[in-house]
Structures are given as C-alpha cells and as structure tokens.
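Retro notes
What went well: the complex prediction finally ran end to end.
Inputs used:
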Amino acid sequence: MLAKRIIPCLDVRDGRVVKGTQFVNLRDAGDPVELADFYNREGADELVFLDITASAEGRRTIIDVVSKTAEVVFIPLTVGGGIDSPDFIQELLQCGADKVSLNTAALRDPDLISRSAERFGSQCIVAAIDARRVDNLKPGETMRWDVFSHGGRTNTGRDLIEWVRETEQRGAGEILLTSMDADGTLAGYDNEMLAAVTDAVSIPVIASGGAGKLDHLYDALTIGNAHAVLAASILHFGTYSIADIKEFLAEKGLPIRPVREADEQE
Amino acid sequence: MTSLVIVDSGSANLSSVYKAARMVSLNPTVTDDPRVIARADALIFPGVGSFDHAASKLSGKGLQEVLLLAIEKDRPFLGICLGMQLLLPASEESFETGQSGRGLAAIGGLVKKFPSGLPVPHVGWNRAKPIDGSLLFRDLEEGAYFYFTHSYYAEPDREEVILAKTEYGFSFTSAVNRGNVYGVQFHPEKSGPAGLRLLANFGKIIADPQ
C-alpha cells in the first residue's frame, strides 16, 4: 500500500530560502541545500522548491540550487514557479529535479501540459492549482471553486473541477492543490475542495494550504482523501517536526514511511 | 579495477542515478557509446518515459546488441524503472500506441498496465518485499519503503525470476533477478537511505559476482 507522503515546501528567491529560517541548529538556514538536507534527514518523503524569483535571469539560480541539492538529498525533488517551457523543464530534470509543477503558464497555454507530458512522461508533470471558493452561489447551485493564476492574483474564471479533469486528461501525473481560502490561516485544509478534486480525478492529489495542527493533516489525508500533504508554516516555524507528524499519523493507522529509515543514512 | 557504466538512454533520471552511485562510492562512467558499454564489467540501465521511445532509441544507437551481450555473459546489470521493464520482450504500452517497440527479452513475460480503478501512475513510497537471501536487498529492513512512479508493471512468466513483490491493490513484481542481472521497478536513487543501501549492495555484487 502506498504511504501517505509528507512534503516540505521551500520558497526560494534568488537562490535563498525566504521562509523557515527559524532553525537554530542549522549553520545557514537560508541555504536551500542545507535546509533540504535537514528535512531529508528528518524523514521528509519529497521536497518541493517553489522559486519566487522575480527576474528571468535570476531564475537560473534555481538550476544551481537543484543541482547541489541532488548531490546530497536522494528523495524526489519537485521544482515550481515560473516554469513556462519544455526546454527549461529539460534543464531542471537534467540537473536532478524529478518533477516540475506548472501553474500560470499551463493556464495560459494548457497544451504545455500535453507537450511536456509527452516529452518527459506524466511522472514529471505536476499541475499546481490555486483555487478559491465561489461565495455568491445562486439558489440550488452546488459548491464550486475558481482557479487563480499569477500566484493567486488573477481569477481565470475556470472552474476547478473542469480544470483538474483537463490537466489529468492532458497528462499531468499529480495535482498540487492549494486552497487560497485556507492558506496561511492555520485552520485546516479545505477538505470539501480536496474531496471534490480527489473524487473527480484518479491521479494523486497533494493538499496544500491551511495546516496548523496535526489533526489537519490527518483530515486532509482521510476526509479529503489526499495522497500527500504539503507543509510549509507548520514545519518552518518549528511547530512540529516531520517525526512528530509521522508518528501521529502512523498511530492513527495511516500507512507512513517510518522516519527511522531516514535516520540510518550513512 | 572493475568498470561500471551507466547507460545513457537519454533518460531524465540519469544525473540522479549518477549522483547516488557516487554517494555509495561507486565510480561510474555515463555513456551511450556501444564500444565502451561492450567493455564494461557492470552496467546500470536507468529508464524513464515510454517503452517504445526507449526501445527504438536502443536499437537506433546499436545498444540493443551490446546490452544483450552483457546480459548473456551474466555481467552485473541493474535495470531501473523502465530499465527493468525493458528486460522483458514487450509492453502493453506498445499495444495502446499501435507501436511495436521490442524489449531485450532477457526475462520472459509481459509489461502490463495497472488494472483500471487504481490511481495511476502508482506514485509514492511503497514497500518491496524481497525473497529470502537476496543479495540486492541484503541488510535492508523487512518491507523497506522505496519510491515508485510508473503506470505499467512487469509480469514475468516464470516465478523463479521474481525477486520482490509490492502491494498496490494486488501484488505485482517490483524486482527481478536472473544470475547477476537485476531489475527494480522503483527508483533506488530517489529512495533515501534504503535506496542508497540497495545501490551499495549492487556495488558488492559488482565486486564479487556470483
């Protein structure tokens, strides 16, 4: 049976981690390679680098970050943020990334998902989707969500469920789903949205946005039926360690890759 | 000094396999030169992507013959992911695309698509349960987790080549072995400490083939 995955997300700007610099036991917590290795040793199942570098030339630094990380961290690495061409994907894969996440560029040009999946395989292509609940429902209308692009700034007017189905059909291998309503609230994932998406597609869904307590992770993986949870604040601010999370979820009976295996490195 | 070659099949996980092999003190060369591959004492054959694409690339580069020769001579060989599937003669992936890519046929059987109803690709960490006494899985904790990502799985036609099995709705073959030739469906280069240990074990097999 597949283990439920715990995935730390590192925000990287110009080659430096910009959140999660609270760790006293790191030499340089702003160094993405060191933080990646730290989470790897803690038992992370995968890592996501979200490149929030603004300039195109500055974005080259993420290649260097991934390459150096892949020298010391032997778990899957996903890179997202500003990826808009198969050639850039190729560079990232060649330097050690295993997957890339496509967001705004895929909304602008959905065929990018098809072309990339065809060239590199579905296993490389993650559809990253930011969505927000639609409030003003007409009487009789069921719950729905709009998809946003440009880091949540632009409402594309696309319906979430239609878009997740399209990304799957175009060859995305996984969906990284962020609830803009829940993000940063620490009040829990949007489990209704998760359940609606995991019901609509058969590819794995990674839940993102809203985790503040261990129960929230459990709920996303059970009520929301997510395959994996992305965790940012809850880890970066040291509220819980990956070991805390995994122990909690394993005790609740979920299949979890034990942390002790990760302890044995070297 | 034994020479280890990582076969460059244009696969996306090439650099990760190289880095992981270096991490466990192996000293591989990465090449697609059939002459170098023909002289190698041991081979790692990584693969990601479609069966047909990889199969046609192999025959186009003249790699099919040298890989078969290495297998025939029972040199230590490790196929990873699609590299394991290519040890079999054919894949249902070809039937779907109407192509007819041919695998190495070092191990009999067929590469099959996961039955409908299961989330596909099978992606994430799952346990591989090896048969007793396997050198490749030596010193690994029972039922250790490895990282998988694939939509097809190998179904050998003979029980004795099955080295490990994994549960995903049903029990499928996640590692095969015949002599010094091994194939693993998961990615040891992305499976943390367990994966590195498995690669180190392959290093021991290279140093002391059966």
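What we learned: Confidence is low (pLDDT under 50) at residues 261-266 of chain A.
What to try next: split runs per interface for comparison.
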